[in-house]
Amino acid sequence: MNLKPSHSDISRHEGCTIQGALSITAFVDDAITIIHGPAGCTHQSSAFFYSALMYNGYYDVPFMLSSELGENDIIFGGEKKLSDTIEKALAYNPKAVFVIGTCVSATIGDSIEDVCREFTTVPVIPVNTAGFLGGSFTSGFEEALLAVSALIAEDESAVLKKQSKPKIPSVNIIGEKNLESDIDENYEELKRLLKLLSVRINIRLARHTTVDDIRNMKRADLNIFREKFPDNITDHFTQKTGLKYIEEFPAGFKGTIEFIKKIAEHLEIDPEYALRAEEKYQQSITEEFSDIKGKTINFDSFGFQNADYDILSEMSEYFGIKVDDDGTEIPIPFSAPVGSTGIKRMLHQWRRFLRNAE
Asked: What's residue 173's pLDDT?
């Protein structure tokens, strides 16, 4: 029995485990994800993705299959139904198949792992997503990251192949949030910062990536995680790839400068050009938004957002902005803006709210 107390907020991170897992597996473009449960689970997840992606301006809803468990399957077991659905998925010639469990399949005791092991033509990978056992959107997301990593090549061929080419440092980006409204803007900012150091991106796990991309993660020189993940996630990818890592995307002016220094240190690159260029860019942002200096604002948390971002304090102090309950209400972003350009977008929003309040 799940005795966890009810949550007192409505944070999106406590949504369905299945949808958290799908936000990783469904974005491996040449793989297929099966939801092993009643058709309603897949329908609800499809509707969720359709709504979230459309809201963010994306119209390519990921393809997914359902094992469509019915009454008889729930009474007598659904493993045969799952096996048939995997056969159906293989008819599309995917490079891999992911199988996501549901509360129903876990309750009736179906062994998804055993069924997946019966198939050997392509990787058929189970994802642990029994939400009623205390899972959440976040736990589903993390379990899917671990499951997808099973595709990383175990031998050294990828490393040898990398060494046969001219040495251009590269990184793996791990754990981007596919439902994040600014995901592509954040990626472009990260790419801009890496370009200052002449570093390229090997793979985005998992943002419209392929099975072969994942297999070749060892070709990179460093892992960069979207945000701070639990140690079991970072340690797992360190073990699987043999690479050191940066634990999160940069946030704030100071954080962006430190990010450049860390990348350069790990990859043994001289950071001076990149640091000078970024400091010049940050100075231009400061000059562009000099008109908001001295204003009074109040951060609106919507009742559940985290108002403790260091970045909010850094920017308000940097621009001499007073934070007071009587100030103009400014919405807190769902996640900290990434890099200097993220700060610039945030300041555009602050300026708009301040002008509307005049």
From this structure: 97
